[in-house]
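Request: When convenient, would you put together a sequence paired with its structure tokens?
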Amino acid sequence: MKAVKIGLLGLGTVGSGVIAVLKRNADEITRRAGREIVVVAAAVRDLSKPRDIDSSDIKLTEDAFSVVDDPEIDVVVELIGGDGIALDAVNRALDNGKHVVTANKALIALHGNQVFKKAQSKGLVVAFESAVAGGIPIIKSIREGLSANRIEWLAGIINGTSNYILTQMSEGGRDFDDVLAEAQALGYAEADPAFDIEGTDAAHKLTILASIAFGISLQFSKVYQEGITNIASEDIAYAREFGYRIKHLGLARMTDEGVELRVHPTLIPEARLIANVNDVMNAVLVQGDAVGPTLYYGAGAGSEPTASAVVADLVDVVRAITTDPENRVPHLAFQPDTLSDLEILPISEVRTAYYLRMSVINRPGVLAAITEIFGDKGISIATISQKDSGEDEQRVSIVLLTQNTREGYLTDAIEQIEQLDTVYGSVVRLRVESLS
């Protein structure tokens, strides 16, 4: 059979990895796909830039749309990122009857509903395994490997930058700003790291995972999102004393009231495997009703780990080219006309346990006033500890863990506590998940 010809949009870190993997493992990939896969064209930002890979047999251009419009090309691989020119190029590729592979989580999370609808109408495939967790085959695992299960919840460490920062703060007792500067120097964090440390990147990925897990449309705007910039070294230390690690977690859970979609710093029991995923590594824990808990761990970014997922998608697309379009695996795991309109819960309706830290005047009656407020709101305290505040004998820190409660109740309680004249500043709130 004739080779399937590929056009790359972007020849940076991941694009170079794709070419390297395709060339190095050409025979094995051909055996798996049933046909040879050949990159024949690539769009680059700067033709004069020196490259680490041999591109002598590839037509290079600075015009992405010339690749998309090339009639010789069967599959377009979009590695530009963002939802500007990348979205235009993907839509045009579909209009031209070309299958698409993309590593672009923002494009899928924000525009996937429209893109998949167009692809479905034309009998085309849009593959996006590499958009979540780099080289970990988490999308295929949920969409196909766990298809016999009703997914109850999933939780993921799905941003390597945030995980690296929290790991270094935990292991070395270092401050956030110090570790962030190091992460930028090492290339783990961008000059403007907000996309990672404020949770947007993880929220894009969680949107995709939740849609596949629960059969709902992509709804990025409804994900609750909280970053790690306010995590203090003392909170990490106190969490350790209670037997927890703090991780930046993306969590999606099916409840009787609706679906929880949230990204935030979370206390996880140190005995859980996912609590011990460190540095830039990623991991996703999925709970199915039949299989129970399953954990997927690996490199969440990088040239060849991400290229591994891109090439795996290419193999699937090549296999699908000769398959009846009506019998292909649906983009979001469920047939498009069966997607659910389940409600996405606002954060105020979420139920979980909490870690709280507050600075108070060191005198009798203060703790009683605080616990009375919790009692009035029906919030039970699991553990409480008083910590000295260094040289200031007039001030102490109260650190506590609550039992499961509704977030709205806790927010009301915190507002009352912060109004007490015996409490300094704001109460620190972090969510706690047992993941059991």
The chain has 14 helices and 17 strands. The longest strand covers residues 244-254. The domain at 4-135+303-336 is CATH 3.40.50.720 (Rossmann fold).
